[in-house]
């Protein structure tokens, strides 16, 4: 564990990129495989490389987003715009999670859809509303847990949550 923490601390953007590249892509493959009821890849080999790179870029975007939303939440507390109980512990984790998923999440998901559309040579935003709904029922609770952890563990858990959501979405896809 110490080696992992040292790697994340010394390489915050690279580690975010690698963790999301692996776990985000794996989540897509597992989701598609569950839907197809057999091991399957949701795209061509070249497109899969594009998706891996897209997830890596998304990991970096999320790393910056987490830092920014923590600063935003702290600024609201500093200006007495939030109650004090949101300044530490579970309250802090919940506040950062809510703000992250309300202000950052929708744009990040739209960006990810644009990446996917480019890679798959598709147009449109079909299904984006379903994705946005996950911000409420999945991501706010998941990131509340995430933001209770030390900073060096947060991106890794967020990437793991992407894998978990992929499994859930694959199991519930019609």
Describe the structure.
The chain is mainly α. The chain has one domain (14-172). It is built from 6 helices and no strands. It has helices spanning 2-10, 12-36, 45-78, 89-120, 128-146, 151-172. It is globular.
- Straight-line N-to-C gap: 39 Å
What Rg is obtained from the alpha carbons, in whole angstroms? 17 Å
Give the averaged pLDDT, no decimals.
96
How many distinct folded domains?
1
Helix segment tally: 6
Largest sheet: none
Strand content: under 5%
- Low-confidence parts: none
Helix content: over 70%
**What sort of overall outline do the alpha carbons produce when their principal axes are compared?**
globular
The H-and-E topology, N to C, reads as: HHHHHH
| Structural class assignment | mainly alpha
| Counted beta strands | 0
How do the helices and strands line up, and which of them pair or pack?
Elements: H1 2-10, H2 12-36, H3 45-78, H4 89-120, H5 128-146, H6 151-172
Helix pairs in contact: 1-2, 2-3, 2-6, 3-4, 4-5, 5-6
Concise synopsis of the structure shown:
This protein has 174 residues and is mostly helical. The chain has one domain (14-172). It has helices spanning 2-10, 12-36, 45-78, 89-120, 128-146, 151-172.
